[in-house]
Design goal:
The protein has 13 helices and nine strands. It is an alpha/beta fold and 335 residues long. A nine-stranded mixed β-sheet has the order 1-2-3-4-5-6-7-8-9. α12 links the parallel β6 and β7. It starts with 13 loop residues before the first helix and ends with a strand. The chain binds pyridoxal-5'-phosphate and iron/sulfur cluster.
């Protein structure tokens, strides 16, 4: 029997858990009990866009299954090297939309504030995998320039913290950023686009909840979950705390071949999200970024699939199927 001689349990902070993320292939394969020959790994693909995944996320991958839908989102494979001129480094015109460093103002009333290039997980289909983040270092002067821009644009009522993943930043940084935003009178809403409550549920800690529940801005958080297996009880607990702090929870997914391109997976995803208090928001068609063509689904197939899920789910659990098109004033619905 254990007695009081047992060592005190050391609480791991989210920063420590993040620092221990898996970035090495042998470690990944060993943890998942996969033989290197079982998966079409590519060192060149990994050199272009590194492997990165948290252990929370890894723990939801089925051991020994090379086709696991979560594994396929993070594994650098040979297919990424196939050349196709339809796929480019800047598929949605983000580089042209950058008004001042760190600001993407494409749509009326809202803009993206790029806070960091860092992420807790590197998703192989990510449209920002080639984004030149080093050009918008978030130094104090750059931050001031961004704040000045927002203050001058009185049509802006919502600021979206994006990246990378904004919740990678520490709470001192974030709460200082948000206090500066609160001082801009025409701002009403704050939105955070993040994967961290899913990839690292411990990120939702008292410090984060404190500034989130105090801000005068009406706050929403848009998760990025593609498959129901990404959700477990630890994620559910984190989401409940966010809701208790008054945050509205939404989700966007990307339609990905061999990952979530089936009626049952998408219906289960919507239902699981709602169980955790999250409403489906967008289902994006893939942005054609270099290295992602093996995830693409032809438009006609996407439409058919969408018709199927719409026939099964209530309207409020059906995300809007959209494509991001350069130069359009909104994300364009497909159907
Ligand atoms: C997606 C996006 C938004 C948000 O669009 P919503 O339709 O409000 O979700 C805002 N700005 C940019 C640049 C975007 O890419
Ligand atoms: S920005 Fe989002 S989708 Fe892209 S790698 Fe980071 S977490 Fe993944």
């Amino acid at each position: 029997m254990y007695s009081s001689a047992a060592p005190a349990i050391q609480q791991t902070t989210w920063q420590q858990a993040l620092a221990r993320s898996c970035t090495q292939l042998p470690e990944l394969l060993n943890y998942l009990e996969l033989k290197p020959s079982a998966v079409p790994i590519s060192a060149d693909a990994m050199a272009k866009f590194p492997l990165r995944v948290t252990y929370d996320y890894l723990s939801r991958i089925e051991k020994g299954n090379p086709n696991d839908p979560l594994l396929r989102q993070i594994l650098p494979i040979e297919d990424e090297l196939a050349f196709n001129s339809d796929y480019t480094a800047n598929p949605v015109g983000d580089i042209e939309a950058e008004q001042v460093a760190g600001i993407l103002h494409k749509y009326h009333g809202r803009l993206l504030l790029i806070t960091t290039g860092g992420c807790s997980i590197n998703c192989r289909y990510c449209f920002r995998r080639e984004y030149p983040y080093s050009g918008n270092q978030t130094s104090k002067s750059v931050e001031q320039e961004a704040m000045d821009y927002i203050a001058q644009q009185s049509e802006i009522s919502e600021v979206i913290l994006s990246g990378g993943d904004p919740l990678i930043l520490n709470d001192a940084r974030l709460s200082s950023l948000v206090s500066q935003l609160e001082e801009i009178p025409h701002l009403k809403r704050l939105r955070i686009h993040t994967r961290l409550p899913v990839t690292l549920p411990s990120r939702v800690d008292p410090l984060l909840l404190t500034w989130l529940s105090k801000t005068r801005l009406a706050t929403s958080l848009v998760l990025h979950v593609n498959h129901p297996n990404e959700l477990d009880n630890a994620v559910g607990d984190a989401l409940l705390k966010l809701r208790q702090a008054g945050v509205t929870l939404l989700n966007q997914s990307v339609l990905l071949k061999n990952i979530n391109d089936s009626e049952s997976t998408l219906c289960q995803l919507s239902e699981a999200l709602f169980q955790y208090g999250v409403l489906p928001y967008y289902l994006h068609l893939l942005d054609k970024v270099s290295g992602s063509q093996h995830f693409d689904i032809p438009d006609a197939d996407a439409c058919q699939l969408y018709h199927q899920i719409r026939s099964k789910l209530p309207g409020y659990l059906t995300p809007t199927l959209v494509r991001e098109r350069s130069g359009f004033p909104y994300k364009s619905p497909i159907l």
